[in-house]
Amino acid sequence: MIDKHLYNGDITISFDERSHTYIIDGNRIPSVSTISSIGSKGDILTLWALKLVREYLNKNKDELITDKLIKEALSEYKRAQLSALSVGTETHKWCEDVILRRIPKTPSCEEVDNATKAFLKWNKSYRSQFEYSELMLYSRKYNYVGIVDVVFTVDGFYYIGDFKTSKAIYPEYFIQIAGYVIAFEEEYGIKIEGACVIRLDKKTGEYEVKYSKDLKRDKECFLSCLNIKNTLKDIKDEQAVEISTTIVY
């Protein structure tokens, strides 16, 4: 468990890296990524999972279809997902080390190596001044927390960026970075001029950058997602209370 002190020490957040949970005064606090995932790419991930299952079965088509083979096929998605998460985590750490002028570790695989090369190309092209890396943010007003990948300035204007190693830049990414913008502006009192997703292609070593077209709209959408999440939690808590108070004869 790692303790982070925000708002000049007024707020202490305990962060569990393994479970990726945030705790304040014993209460679990929702994260930006969890909130924004309400509008997530669920259908795309489902199709990806089915594609991996089909590929695995085709690769083993000469074998007799058994429960064991089906289970192995179904677990192929989980293996691929864990691999993608590992590449993303290592890439983020590498970028953080470079931003903070630390010596990064040598990439452990070709995909990480490509993603880090993409980062260097982006950095050289944009010539940004880095202000913060892996910065934990908390909104007192809305009670949520998150870690933003990078805050940088260009010509004195502040921007927030989120690194991705995914195959594409999905719409919900802009909802996620809008959550970071709200919390950053609240704590630091600095206006964010723009927010962008920086995709580091782990196959080609190239980068892709897309900026929010309407940050005000994206902020409103994030707060709507937060409202949905909080409402669902309230309903769930109400149902739990009803069940606990029901007398069974």
Tell me the count of domains.
1
**What is the molecular shape?**
globular
What structural class do the secondary elements suggest? alpha+beta
**Beta-strand percent range:** 15-25%
**Which segments are poorly predicted (pLDDT under 50) over 5 or more consecutive residues?**
none
The SSE order reads EEEEHHHHEEEHEEH
**Highest-level CATH class:** Alpha Beta
What is the count of β-strands? 9
Number of helices: 6
Largest sheet strand order:
5-6-7-8-9
Rg result: 21 Å
The CATH architecture category equals 3-Layer(aba) Sandwich
Binned, the helix content reads 40-55%
Distance from N terminus to C terminus (CA atoms, Å) equals 44 Å
Mean pLDDT across all amino acids: 86
Examine the coordinates and then state which fold CATH places here, giving the name of the CATH topology: Trna Endonuclease, Chain: A, domain 1
| Main beta-sheet annotation | 5 strands, mixed
